[in-house]
């Protein structure tokens, strides 16, 4: 994409004053802020234009709240890769936070939030958006050279970047409980030396109560999800966390694995 072309971000809030405040925050950036006054309007906008770097979504809206709106957006395969950040005063419990992640959000900020922090978070995703476009352009060029393996590697970099943008420890496990992927926050909290130390290991071996962690694994695959499951990480600080997890499936509804997100119980 052209380097000087404004990057579009979608602002969703039923209050005009909140939308105006967001526009003021981003007024000095090379962004094109598109307003949506309701969840329905946001869905309509996205059905006609998919080229957004990020969506900033309020949760408490009449008729269709932020959770419902995000779930509806994520049903469109073409929109599934657009990062969504919740801006709300209601994400005050681990259940609410997990509900946001489960709906498809990648992050959240509670009101009142720091404009500087919001700008920094948005800047990360805008940069990822630009790099993804560059990767896609490179992939198109490589297709003509029949380098399919290299193309898949380039495209996977964007997905990995999204995972790393999540500030909480995140593990991806298979149905046997073996870790297949994770973000840097997971490496830090387990005090592992590298990704190679975690990939292929059983995730429940990294907790003080192995049986309890194994039971959490069983529950997420039996019920499809688990919320607010208390565990203690086996690190030098014995960090207490609340685990939230959800299975993910292929296009034939076969369970492939689960995504587990941990939040420090003291936060």
Report on this structure.
- The chain has 267 residues and is an alpha/beta fold.
- The chain folds into two domains: 7-131, Response regulator (Rossmann fold, 3-Layer(aba) Sandwich); 168-264, PAS domain (Beta-Lactamase), CATH 3.30.450.
- The chain contains nine helices and ten strands.
- The chain has helices spanning 16-25, 39-48, 66-74, 94-103, 115-143, 148-165, 184-190, 195-198, 210-223; strands spanning 7-12, 31-36, 54-58, 84-88, 107-110, 170-173, 179-182, 225-232, 240-249, 255-264.
- The chain is globular and about 50 Å long.
- The N and C termini lie far apart (40 Å).
- The mean pLDDT is 84.
Q: List the strand order in the largest sheet.
A: 2-1-3-4-5
Number of strands: 10
Can you name the CATH architecture of the largest domain? 3-Layer(aba) Sandwich
Helical content stands at 40-55%
How do the helices and strands follow one another from N- to C-terminus? EHEHEHEHEHHEEHHHEEE
Mean pLDDT: 84
The CATH topology name of the largest domain reads Rossmann fold
Distance between the termini: 40 Å
Derived structural class: alpha/beta
The major sheet is characterized as:
5 strands, parallel
Structural shape: globular
Instruction: State the CATH class of the largest domain.
Output: Alpha Beta
| Uncertain regions spanning at least 5 consecutive residues | none
Determine the CATH superfamily of the largest domain: Response regulator
Radius of gyration, in angstroms, nearest whole number: 19 Å
Count of discrete alpha- or pi-helical segments spanning 4 or more residues: 9
């Amino acid at each position: 994409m052209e380097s000087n072309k404004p990057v579009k971000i979608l602002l969703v809030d039923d209050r005009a004053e909140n939308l105006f405040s967001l526009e003021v925050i981003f007024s000095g950036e090379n962004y094109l802020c598109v307003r949506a006054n309701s969840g329905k309007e946001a869905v309509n906008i996205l059905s006609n234009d998919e080229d957004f770097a990020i969506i900033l979504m309020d949760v408490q809206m009449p008729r269709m709240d932020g959770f419902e709106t995000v779930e509806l957006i994520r049903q469109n395969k073409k929109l599934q890769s657009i990062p969504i950040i919740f801006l709300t005063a209601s994400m005050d419990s681990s259940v609410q936070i997990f509900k946001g992640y489960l709906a498809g959000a990648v992050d959240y900020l509670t009101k009142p939030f720091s404009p500087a922090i919001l700008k920094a978070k948005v800047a990360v995703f805008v940069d990822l958006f630009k790099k993804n476009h560059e990767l896609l352009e490179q992939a198109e060029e490589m297709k003509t050279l029949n380098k399919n393996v290299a193309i898949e590697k380039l495209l996977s970099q964007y997905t990995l970047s999204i995972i790393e943008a999540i500030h909480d420890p995140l593990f991806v496990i298979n149905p046997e409980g073996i870790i297949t992927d994770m973000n840097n926050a997971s490496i830090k909290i387990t005090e592992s030396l590298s990704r190679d130390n975690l990939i292929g290991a059983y995730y429940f071996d990294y907790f003080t109560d192995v049986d309890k962690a194994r039971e959490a694994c069983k529950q997420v695959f039996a019920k499809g999800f688990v919320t607010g499951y208390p565990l203690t990480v086996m690190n030098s600080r014995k960090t207490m966390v609340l685990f939230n997890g959800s299975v993910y499936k292929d296009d034939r509804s076969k369970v492939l694995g689960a995504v587990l997100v941990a939040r420090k119980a003291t936060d």
